[in-house]
Task: structure prediction
Amino acid sequence: MGKLTRAFEKKFKDVEDINTTISNFPPGNRWDQRLRLSTNLRSPFLEKFRSLSAPILYKSPDHQPKKIMVTSVMPGEGKGFICANLGVGISQAIEYHALLVDCDLRRPTLAQLFGLTNETGLVDHLQDNVDLSLLIRKTGQPKLSVLPSGKPPQNPSELLSSSRMATLINELAERYPDRIILFDTPPSMAASETSVLAKHLDGVILVVRHGAAPKKDVKKLVDALGPENILGLVYNAYPENRIETFFNKRMKYGYYDNYY
Result:
């Protein structure tokens, strides 16, 4: 993490400076279209999402992260898209299932990405103790399920920071030991509960959109979460004409592990 924390200037511009980047994604069109691309075996996106899931799936068994936060500094950096496609990548591994939990109660996206309704979900469990088995939804993708956020509540910060939420995280891990659980959480600049949630999880994937996030704000978030808890950084929407060069250069010279 040392190179990550030292690389912050005004904006993220030079991807070569970031040693812990997991992967890079070109600007896309519609959300649902990009999600379909990641499930197409002939799509160039597929290998990128497989490389994104590899650092999680192939950790040492003694250090296997199972409860993972996907977050960003600012709204609109693409964390929901990354979370959804990371779930797709994990579910394609032979021995793993993935469960996505939409904790962005103000601006939920996961249900929409998978063509699901968002009438019920996490909020109903936290407020009314509705059983999880009635709220978790199938996506149509084998071994991949989603717990939508449900309708926006009046008190999102209080719900996500509650002991009930902490209990839910542990309950999901105990009930579904074969699943990697990804929590799409609110951006830190727009919500205060991100750091609270991180304390109950095994690690964080931080999504940064190219040219958008001020480096001082990203560094502040990294410091708040703890550099040792950052599993990696996804540098999103990097110009496509630079991606293949970057990937080929890294792979050719054996630096692919530097993404991790």
